[in-house]
Amino acid sequence: MTEPAADDLGAFLRTRRARISPQDAGLPPSMGIRRVPGLRREEVALLAGVSAEYYERLERGRTKNASASVLDSVARVLRLDAAERDHLHALATSSRSRRTRMAAVRLRPGLRRALESVTDVPALVLGPRQDLIAINDLGAAFYTGLDLLPPGRRNMVRYLFTVDAARELYDDWAGTARAMVAELRRYAGTHPHDPELTDLVGDLAVRDRDFRCWWAEHDVHLRSHGSKCYHHPIVGDLELGYEAMTPVGEPELTFGTHTVEAHSPSAEALALLSSWSATSMPGSTVDTSRPVDPQSATTDPDATP
Questions:
Q1: Looking at the chain, which residues constitute the CATH 1.10.260.40 domain(s)?
Q2: By three-state DSSP, how is residue 132 classified?
Q3: Most CB atoms within 10 A, among 161, 178, 199, 262?
Q4: Looking only at Cα atoms, what is the longest distance across the chain?
């Protein structure tokens, strides 16, 4: 039976070489009809300096000792960015060791206090698979409909694809959701045997056609910073920046916080939302007094959030 990581490696390489034409790669136009989009296997092998047989074995997941230099050569030919290159290395090596169920994530007190000290912008802590570990009060008010998900199933990918309010909150919902799927695909490269990931992907693939299509594209993305536009049902339109950081010593966690320009309309809107939440929401809709245990999540695909 083929390893899941081997299947993902082959699919990833096929989708990447399909993006590049022979002309883009510096090859002369070929005669006759090409039966595949982009580069053929033998063309990738030629440009990467390996034999066609070796590259075919690599793409089929039958080469378990590919060197870093060979993978870097393939990445160069396929014009992979940094996140894609790291993903290639992870896929080519992850099948060598099986991973078991991950231990529940616990948020250390110092990080929790750091999160709670952020009061003027939405902030949260995410764990593996984009599981929601903790969120500040303003974040709970900002992400409308998040409270519709049971505590053990609060996951930002699930939120985007199963809560109608999320689709209305993001001005560019499709772009945001597609990037989130690509982040989840990147996680899958380093955790191919995570059963919670399998359950999440299976659940969302059954529920949503867009998720199925974007998951099949094998795109990967590493979020760091940027800005997004939102339309909040209480305070209207906002433009907020965001920063995603990995705490030292906590590689499975992401500390995410929004940013806003002082005295801007968006800053005023957040201040209004903070005042509204203080009177209308006596406490955060997500319990920040203790960490959410991702392993307590149900995996019933028929469950309604």
A1: 4-94
A2: strand
A3: 161
A4: 71
Q: Which H or E element spans position 243?
A: strand 236-245
Distance CA 198, CA 66 (A): 26
Residue 5, classed as helix, strand or coil, is: helix
pLDDT score for 277: 87
- Confirm or reject CATH 3.30.1360.120 for domain 4-94, answering yes or no: no
The order of strands in the sheet holding 132-135 is 132-135, 123-126, 254-259, 236-245, 225-232
The pLDDT, as a whole number, for residue 170 is 97
Distances in Å between the alpha carbon of 255 and those of 151, 161, 287?
Answer: 19, 22, 17
Given the structure tokens 């034999």, which residue do they identify? 51
State pTM to two decimals: 0.82
Cα–chain center distance at 184: 3
Q: Is 35 exposed, middle or buried, given 0-12, 13-18 or 19+ CB atoms closer than 10 A?
A: exposed
Range list of β-strands (E), 46-192: 123-126, 132-135
Do residues 2 and 61 make contact, with C-beta atoms less than 8 angstroms apart? Answer: yes
pLDDT for the residue numbered 24 = 81
User: Residues 82, 103: contact at Cβ < 8 Å?
Assistant: no
Residues of the chain with CATH 3.30.450.180: 109-296
- Mean pLDDT by groups of 10 residues along the chain of 305 residues: 64 93 79 74 92 91 83 94 93 61 76 94 95 95 94 93 96 96 94 91 96 96 92 97 93 94 96 89 45 36 33
Handedness of CA 136, 140, 146, 149 (dihedral sign): positive
Type of residue numbered 266: S
Q: Class of the 109-296 domain? A: alpha beta
What residue has token string 């960015």? 81
What per-residue string of b and e applies to 68-101 under the rule 16 or more CB within 10 Å gives b?
Answer: eebbebbbebbebeebbbbbbbbbbbbbeeeeee
